[in-house]
Structure prediction request, 329 residues.
Amino acid sequence: MSTACSASLRPSVACVALNPALDQTIDVRNLRLGEVNRAQRAQIDVGGKGINVASCLADYCGGVAVTGLLGRDNLALFEQLFDRKAILNHCLYVDGMTRINTKLVDPAQGMTTDINMPGPELSAEQISAAIEGLCRVIDELAQSVTWFVLSGSLPPGWPDDTYARLISRVRGHGRKVLLDASGLPLLEGLRAQPHVLKPNENELSELVGRKLRTPGDIRLAVQELLAANTQVECVAVSMGGDGALFFSRTESLHAQALPVELISTVGAGDAMVAGLVAAQIERLPLAASAQLATAFSAAKLSRLGPHLPGVEVVRQRMMEVRVKTLEAA
Prediction:
């Protein structure tokens, strides 16, 4: 196996976080709705999908930049994370606060309840200026960055084709893109042909317009997607406790989920995205990519916040992941 990518002042990966958040995680055992509950502990972590991906990649290999929007009124925790993990900060700052999300973690029942805020509301003129600013940042980062990760929801009022515009900008520089989105932003973004797509099974069902009940259903849907989008190279579909499916144009694989001591499911999908990108940078074949991405996700499930354990732990978990060929239905 090749070595993990090393930290550098010239990043090799850039994560675009249009709707970051501060995640307030509250540990409440046997949560009872409509009643007074007593928390065991609480913590606040920098979060949002793009930030989570950047943080996990920084833990594993370094060489990460982040861009997106941050509110000036609660910058400190974001800047502290970026400094601590040597993540290069190319974010655009806007007036007001970055949104705060609440995660109610019930370890007794193995459940997490998310209460997510929508994000800052900007005028049409401010949104247009922000998109142009992000395009300029992409132009700058593309001088060294080989992979761009676009993930997460769009803030209120942003056009559905925002990701499509950013993907086209990245492709114009000959760089590669992973897209992790949902709904219309995913549909519009797909039309711009990202190289890697990472929906979950519900997002893929919505994308293709029908319920996908089995791995065979997912396999058929991905085959249709790849046939209609000739520049998409890889699709990974996460299925929670049932593992994940990984597809190239020649292979269809099922990676089984690893047993873990579940602490929080928050950010597990983002960790899988980070693992996919790390595998692309290491130029791993599809089976090893599936193992690494699954190991990232499993390692994250045992930790609060957007953090991974040491590289040696992740690689050990990688070797434990069972991957089998997904047969045609």
In short: Residues 67 and 287 are 31 Å apart (CA to CA). Confidence is low (pLDDT under 50) at residues 1-8. Residues 124-141 form the longest helix (18 residues).
